[in-house]
Batch of 3 targets.
Target 1
Amino acid sequence: MARTDGDSWDITESVGATALGVAWSRAQEQDTDCPLFTDPYAKMFVDAALERGWRLPPAHMVARIKAIGGYAASRTKWFDEFFLAAGANGIEQSVILASGLDARAWRLPWIDGSVIYEIDQPKVLAFKAEVLLAHGATPSARCVPVPIDLRDDWPTALRDAGFDASEPTAWAVEGLLPYLPASGQDLLFERIHDLSTRGSRVGVESFGAGFFDPEYLASRRQKLQQYRQEAGEEDDGNALDVQDLWFIEARTEVTDWLTDHGWEVTAIAAAELMDRYGRCAVGEADDATPRTVFVEGNKMC
């Protein structure tokens, strides 16, 4: 499904289906010898989607998801630790942008008084709420859904939901930026900056110039074609590649943007992060590891 201005989606469509892919990957992590986290809700979401007629990705896509399983697990663990550290430093208010099927409000040990705002497409949040209600799941902190497209006036919707811009906030930007145009990325951070008081933090999975390099993207497509051939699947030209859902445009480096706006920034490349968690060795050749950087910003003034 090609992207268009103002497009929307249900959980099994377009960008929504990528949330199911992430949930499936998180469910697989629990079967590893030494899981980096546990997410019992992930399988609930996948099972519910299957009951609605969703099908697991074709074999070549499953192979791709498994190939980046170490990356996906490391990413999840990094954001888990980001929120835990924010709470340990007294931040009680968190916002998860494009929250999808994120279950952190249910599975993390939040400090007393914490509130988590989840922003995403209305149909995605409705599916999530329905599944959790059916299983009698209760969050470990107050969770407030904010059903709105991030291309719309979500700051107003967030305030209307109870968000207090005078309180420090922990913001999560995970698996989101390629699905926004470059101008939309800049606007996203402008809004985060305007809504953040001193002491706020932001955690970002950043996709910089190296990620959108044409040769690199071409190599990703070639690798996906290899998975397809190994799975014995014919290429009819209609197979979905997640790259088709991205806005492949030159964009501002997140570290530069935050630094220029007075945030104190630290960053770690994906391969180094995976090494930290024992999921690959630094310098190890791994074409499946995305060229991303995990950025944490602390607003100093």
Target 2
Amino acid sequence: MTTPWTLTVHAGGQDPGRLRELIEPVYAEVYAEAPYCEGPDDVAEFAAGWPRRVGAPGFRAVIATVDDRPVGMTFGHPLAAETGWWEGLVERAPDEVTAEDGHRSFAVIELAVLASHRRRGLGRALHDGLLAGRDEQRVVLLVRPEPDAAPARAAYASWGYRTIGQLRPWEDAPVYLALVRVLDAGR
């Protein structure tokens, strides 16, 4: 069986403006939905932060298209040794959980699929494409707690993620669940 979508992997050195043009419409549509309810100002903030994201060492993105229209996306990068990723943990975790060296953890920053293409395995395909060939020890991501993101949490649990704590990534942000999954050897 062939999939109705095409996945394209992009690295940080590729045209960041064109990549943002593909990702931004998916971001805007998905994050306009509840519980996020983001609007034009939020999308503009996302666009303003794009050069920093795409410029991160080891950056990778995967775009899913149907008939040349983006219908899903994901992107991430390894956590740098000096990352602030773990600073928002509600309860302090042991150093063996939070220590980073630039090669230990790959962070999934966003993973989004348009509503019309959900429940068909596309999220998993994007996720797997993002992590294919990675040599980090583990992958980390943040997800909203129940009931806000029940489908996403269920997917992540079925993909082998476990919760390591609650995390507020920036001041005034909602509290997210910090998830981790060990990457398979030889991946």
Target 3
Amino acid sequence: MGRKWNNIKDKKASKDANTSRIYAKFGREIYVAAKSGEPDPEANRALKTVLERAKTYSVPKHIIEKAIDKAKGGGEENFDELRYEGFGVAGTMVIVEALTNNVNRTASDVRAAFGKNGGNMGVSGSVAYMFDATAVFGIEGKTADDVLEILMEADIDARDILEEEETVIIYAEPDQFHATQEALKAAGIEEFTVAELTMLPQTEVAISGDDAAKFEKMIDALEDLEDVQRVYHNADISE
């Protein structure tokens, strides 16, 4: 799973470089999660998950509080959660997750981002079966053996635990996200370089040169869309 971790890291670094965009997307996601249940993360697992993820992107406290306060105040804005699936160059596969208050606009924008960059949208289910929902954590200051012992004591069976570039990467079942994180926190681990639910490809497609440039342009176009929250893909991009 090593290359998959690099894809997550590269995507995170890219988003970190555009803070205004990522903060706006988190504001929307936090608002939706808070409005879907209690505005208290301890009583709302969806909200707790997005807040844990927001910490790894250093989302400012005032943005988080503003989104939660908006939900507490009974904000009237409603968003639909949508998933689009499609294909890029060289048989690459892409999943796009969106939160939108205008389904027609979002579908049109996503279709255009695919079409203008050598890709095309597929039907529901055409791509998702090649990805696995996965909880991913990244921590520093521990070894893989340390983490394995911590999780074994908590009776958590992780999918995989790897050490890469001074970071321990934990892949776990999505329904074990909170249990895994709580076990790590109980062992004194408070800082996570990654803490999120993601979609990992079962296999990857290696692309380079013009194909890589075209594919990256398509991914950028998708991520730039206001309604798009996250984009997953199975491309292994080399320079």
